Amino acid sequence: MAKVKITQVKSVIDRSKRQKATMQALGLTKINKSVEHEATPQIMGMIKAVDHLITVEHL
Fold first, then answer.
1. For the chain, what are the domain ranges?
2. Could you tell me the pTM of the whole model?
3. pLDDT tens, the chain, 59 aa long
4. What is the dihedral angle through the alpha carbons of 58, 46, 43, 21, rounded to the nearest 10 degrees?
5. Chain-centroid distance, C-alpha 51
6. Which residues are paired to 6 by β-bridges?
7. For an engineered disulfide with 27, which of 4, 17, 32, 35 has Cβ 3.0 to 4.6 Å away?
8. Angle formed by the axes of helices 41-49 and 17-26, to 10°?
9. Exposed, middle or buried, 22 (CB in 10 Å: 0-12/13-18/19+)?
């Protein structure tokens, strides 16, 4: 399965609890931190929910 590299580019301050929880579940805690995940439907749904806070690179 394909991998995606996710980088946080905006802060979670003043965001809903749900968005904060999604970012934490993705493993993103600080701006400019990057993580790699498999591109499963669950991860892609999480990415779609917080796409305004992150950038995504398909590897």
1. 3-58
2. 0.91
3. 799 999 999 999 999 999 999 999 999 999 999 999 999 999 999 999 999 999 999 99
4. 120
5. 7
6. 35, 56
7. 35
8. 140
9. buried
